[in-house]
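anyone else get weird line breaks when pasting these?? whatever heres mine. first is seq + tokens for prot A
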Amino acid sequence: LVEATWFSPTVHEPSVHQAALERALDGHEYRVRHRERGVIPMTTAAFPRRIGRRVYPIGLAGGLAKPSTGYAFVDIQRYAKAMATRLRKHPLPEPPAPRPPMSDVQDKVFLSYLQRHPRGAGRAIVGLFERLPADLVPRFLHDRVTPAERLRVMAAMPISTMSGELIRSAPTWLRR
């Protein structure tokens, strides 16, 4: 299985993916058995939590893909369970927030960093896995951390760069 991922404001043509595959395999023989292609909106924009009196969007339409990673499956399961609990108590409940507010702030800062420094993304992410316990990073990516663990992850990032990005980007997303 080979996956090519880009954080980009534009969707790349299949030829770009093919060229990346050939570079990655560096002349080794391979056979393509199946191709998939997808685009996940990496956005921190607010999504409607209700689109009708009794209609609650889930998945991408409900803003349940984590903006900085595109991960959605675990968040969708957690959201569905929370909604089921709420529906047992009230026929038209308010839906839960997709993720903790601090997670939204971190996603906004990281996505802003990616826009300005796209080549630094790999180093930043690999650095998390190198500096932190193996179980902490996936829990962080799925918003299953304590406040202390969240701070530990933040400390494992390039602090001066991310702090600068927070200061630079905050006026943009605080206005929304």
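and prot B, same format (seq, then tokens)
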Amino acid sequence: MARLTPEQREVLVLHYFVGLTLPEVARLLGKHERAVYSLQARAIAALRRHLTSEMTTKSDE
């Protein structure tokens, strides 16, 4: 999670750990729902890329 932007982290924490819906996250942060969906998608993609590269590196050792 440290590789994410503060906004991306905030969206993921509020949605997955606090349990808010994405529309609720958008209202809380004062952002459009589309912006929150985009932040979430980019955060998940970044985490996926990082984890994939970590797994590839570990399997090469």
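btw re prot B: The helical segments are 6-17, 22-29, 33-60. The chain has one domain: 6-60.
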